[in-house]
Fold each of these.
Amino acid sequence: MREMGFVPSSSSEADLIIVNTCTVTGKADAEARRLIRSYHRENKKARIMVTGCYPEREPELFTDMPEVSLVFGNYEKYHLAEAVRFLNEGRGKLFRLERERGGSTPVLPLTSFSGHTRAFVKIQEGCDANCSYCIVPKVRGRSRSVPLSLVIREVESLLSQGFSEIVLTGIHIGVYGRDFGEEKGFLTLLRAIVELPYQFRVRLSSLEPLEITPELIQFVARSEKIAPHFHIPLQSGSDRILAKMRRPYRSDKYREVVLAIRELIPDAGIGADVIVGFPGEEEEDFMATYRLIEELPLTHLHIFSFSPRPGTEAFHMKPALPKTVIKERVKKLRTLAKEKMLAFRQGFIGRELSSVVLSKRDEEGRLVALSGNYIPIKVPYEPSFIGRIVPVRIVELNDKGVFGIISSSATKERKEGLKVEKG
């Protein structure tokens, strides 16, 4: 957009507003519509372009909205300049391109990552799974990997700009490279990244249970450059519900993977996604989920109420659970999740953790440092540490969060560096 002559602006002063939507839940859909109307009320002269997964699924809804000037899908996001020209030429409200079959996912290399202290690199797009509740494969398409050479080039470019943490993202990153015939493509990519001659760390986004192999766990355990943090979708601890969800594993396998991580990487942060209230979920199914989470060394949970998505198999499944039942079950899991999170963090009081200092500040002006095992630690404000990986000692845990101090060794190193620069 900058190359086309645009400059960043506040939403109230913008000439053009681009809304990138999600459609994974009904709540996400509602939030997208609310945002569009809110932006229009705030700035009636702005032209609003809507893209992402929601218009991919239901473009007519947005072309019918008077607040919207242009609608385009996920593929067209990679041709943003053409979309803007289409809008400027007044050629209609729906911008569509002929979609290529085969090949890898389009790539938009990052030349900057303004406003962030961590950089996110997309290595893969789409999903070949067939979970009965999920609309993602229909709005993102089949799994397509970014060629390894392009990923390495982008990571190296971001590291040369000073980013100290790279987060690998995608829809289904564990199958990276399989569309190229590389069965162990994800591990191959990780090996190539950690060999880059920079001081940095890599954080992995969500990985499916069956993709976390003993070989991968051992590699992460041995590497100082990979954050000891896994996020592993569970969705349900009931084998009956997992079968209805068309998830390709059962609770015993999930347990095996989590315990294997904890055995080799004792300090690892291990998160999970859970769906509550899937059609037909009985009390015993919910309790199977509750007991499995209670038993396992999970450190944080993302808990979702089941959201029926038109176009999915689960949309027609019965019986639907009463909202009051779902709400009560969500509440129980959130209480359990909080207990497990606090117990995990409590074990690190007095210890030093390698943490990247974010630009984010809390309500009292402290900076937030994110540990390798995904503990956000509030530290005194010192702007010279922003963006760096430093040892942080946790000193306190209370209902307002985790508090720590940056190690004296890092402070000494910074001061000595300043003396050298002055000399």
Amino acid sequence: MKAVVRIIDEPSYEPQEIRSRVKMLFEADGLRFRGRSVFVKPSFVYPARPPLNRGVNTQPEFVGGVVHALRDLGASRIWVGEDFLAGPSALAFYGMGVLPYLKGVAEPLFLKNEARVDVAVPDALIEGLFRLPKTLVDADLFISLPKLKVNMHTGLTLSTKNHMGLLLLEDRLINHDSGLQHKIADLYRARLPDYILADAIAAGEGQGPMHARPVSTGVIVAGRNGVAVDSVSCRLMGFEPEDVPHLVCLHQKGCGPLAPADIDLEGESLLRERGRRFSAPRLDFADCPSSTRIFVGTQKACPEGCLGMLRGTLDHWASRGSWGPLEEVGFVIGKPQAEEPHGTRRSRTFVAGDCAAPYQELGTFIPGCPVPPLALAFALARKGIVARPLQTRLSDLAAGRMMSLFRRPRKAKC
């Protein structure tokens, strides 16, 4: 039997409309929730209030519509689980302003605080044991709510990539290098989702995942089989699923189809009408000021690891057109170096990642394989070169906290 994937028209982030459409999807695919517990996993990469992150995160109105649909259909208990890499998990929920959408319906689950259980993956490609949240393992059903966007580490962020947010930071960084695509395929098989609802009302292109620009696609992509949903999502974004290594691995493991002939697609006209080629992230540094010296290893500099971490760090300033603080700053990553790094003072040179360790005497050394997210940005701040970076705005955290206590969410359009 072919995997069924549905693309439905959803032009705006209106929670009640999303609630109605999601109920229709659940019922069309025969899901039964009455008396069952449900773990829901959105993606809060850059926790800030909309519309700043429309192309980056699963939107709070989308999450709200889904959890209300689940409650309408009789789910006995609903958890919404997510984390925040740069601080307590609760900051992701406050920064997103999502808590009012959950009040009285679903429980926020701060994954950094959750008990973990070991889950083994048979016939693993690279990583055969994962520490997953116990609540996820115990839940009757698992619903994944990815945001469709491009990603400089993995090409695309789809439902299979959404599993990475289930891991603690120290576990996430293991094999976050040239082995990352295999790691994603292994992790996905540790707990298959029972249903996927992809937020493509506004998708993301450009310098994703952190700085993706919103694209008004105006659809939800849904189905029971994550590989099939991701295959259709690839084509919606102008890519071929055969070019995404972790999807190829999962297909080879029998987890789902890639070819259109093997997928029963409802909404093919929307795929043709709304689909287009998304701009992919750039991983070069040609747009940097000439005085910013960047030395990249000729054989080992992983886009999945340190190369992507450096480019993502610089995008914080590139996206604002404010390169000024980074002029006359040097960065060394990867190995071997074609030439001895030069041209910047030691106090303004940063050697990032274990591959570049032979050059650590040239400046501030940041160990790791890869360097952790935000490590480069915080190193720049400690040297007084840039202001201390925040992954979410204090005003958003404060507003999100106040909303969770006193306010009902407003209706919102895309």
